[in-house]
Amino acid sequence: MQDSEQLTLFKDKPTLLSKRQINILHSSKKNGTAQDDSRSYLKELGIEIVENPQPIQFIKNSSEIVHRWSPYVQGFSAKFVQKSFDRYSDEYKDPVIFDPFAGSGTVLVQSKLNNYESHGVELNPLLHFIAETKINAWQVNDERFLQISKNLNDKHIFVAPDFLKSEKHFHHDVLHNLEILKGGIDAFQPAIEEDEKIKNLMLVAFSSILIDCSNLKRTPCLGYTRKKNVNADTPFILFRKKINEIAFDLRVLQNKYKKVSKKGFVFLANSKDFIHNTLYDLVITSPPYMNGLDYVMNYKIEMGWLGFADNHKKLKQVKDEMVVCDNVSKGLIKNFSVKDKRYTNNWIEDIKSKIQRSIKKRGTYRRPDMPEIVHKYFDDMYKIMVNVTPAIRSGGRFILVIGDSLIADVYLPTDLLIAKIGTELGFSIEKIEKVRNRRSGQVRSYRLRETVVTLRKE
Ligand SMILES: C[S@@+](CC[C@H](N)C(=O)[O-])C[C@H]1O[C@@H](n2cnc3c(N)ncnc32)[C@H](O)[C@@H]1O
């Protein structure tokens, strides 16, 4: 057998390990930490990382008005955004906020709750739609919304997208009831302007229950699970629950937040070439992390059912535009490799050669083009940072929530590299705070981190 080795881990249970598993088993990074592997980089930057543990993940938003309308595993917490606003509230009196990776709109919604003008850019049409609905439907009459949502036509049946394997994702009866529910929403004909928003709210509610109605779960990648208590009525029960939640939040918004006058804007575009027409005081964002999470495929069910993709090619098109993750298509990396105008610096080159050597030593690796993938990630990030920098006021801040990576036993200090790029673009590194530990997906005992990098434009 060429690619695997017979190893007896337990006397009574011989186990066949793949070369990949053997590499992990013998990894030099076992029990290692990002902290140890960051020392030389930190020394060069002349900065230390401050410990500041805090709840940063989106899950915390499940009890926050508006944010909870649609869960987004790759999002961050509204509390973190609020803390950032509070920290600088003396310095910026009436700040304009920007998020180049708007996702489901956490920054935009929280800005609006503070009556701050905000702008966001998002590439994924599903997330753009969700973010836009979350910031632009605050005036909808909750009673009209409830009345329409609870009296949907059940004669118009939507047909589940045929490029998705819906019969595998959903139990037969559940699938049928989801098709009735979606058919009812589609059949609703807006009579007045407000009805368009009501329809959008219903679609957001519908998209947010799809995974809970399925045989799938996100942990954070989409995978099958058997441990679910789903029956034919689940779509109606969950939809009604979500609708009630949204109606409740609309009442809170119209009572407690009626003085909100500032607008939020979210654009369906690529942050690399988005044309900025505003000056920002605070940019708060979280770029995709350089890991195995597929930001588009993870939401293919919602994208398909809401009509934002009707085949895999369309999903791939969205993915190819994004800041790359380590499951990017091979063709895209091949094209990138022959480009002449690529951003680089000595750290990137050094990390690339270390990864190259490690892959050679291993003899095989999931993605032999990993050095180029890493390079493209920073090239993408550089272009986005270059594009937004002139639109940040002097004295303004660029705050990024970032996770680092371990690739073929080579540590990748993504946060420090972004900070280094920041210094090249005229920012000073104000702080780097570690908010939580993470585990490497490859070597589980290796401690990675999630940090908040605060850059200040001089
Ligand atoms: C980590 S998520 C941000 C989540 C967001 N903070 C929230 O709480 O909902 C990163 C987002 O960046 C988007 N994205 C990736 N590349 C992009 C690009 N070049 N331009 C605009 N958006 C991009 C992805 O679609 C994804 O939604």
Question: What does this molecule look like?
Answer:
The protein has helices at residues 19-25, 34-45, 78-87, 106-113, 125-136, 142-150, 166-169, 172-187, 193-209, 234-256, 300-305, 312-321, 330-337, 346-362, 370-388, 414-424, and strands at residues 4-10, 13-18, 50-51, 96-99, 117-122, 216-218, 222-224, 264-268, 280-285, 392-403, 405-407, 410-412, 427-439, 447-457. The chain is an alpha/beta fold. It has a domain at 82-138 and 257-380: Rossmann fold (3-Layer(aba) Sandwich). The strands form 4 sheets. The chain has an 8-stranded mixed β-sheet with strand order 3-13-14-10-9-4-5-8. The chain has a two-stranded antiparallel ribbon with strand order 1-2. The longest helix is centred in the middle third of the chain and has 23 residues, at 234-256. The chain is globular. Mean pLDDT is 93; it is low at 1-11. Bound molecules: S-adenosylmethionine (SAM). Residues 58, 72, 74-76, 101, 103-104, 106, 121-124, 127, 270-272, 286, 288, 295, 322-323 line the site of S-adenosylmethionine.
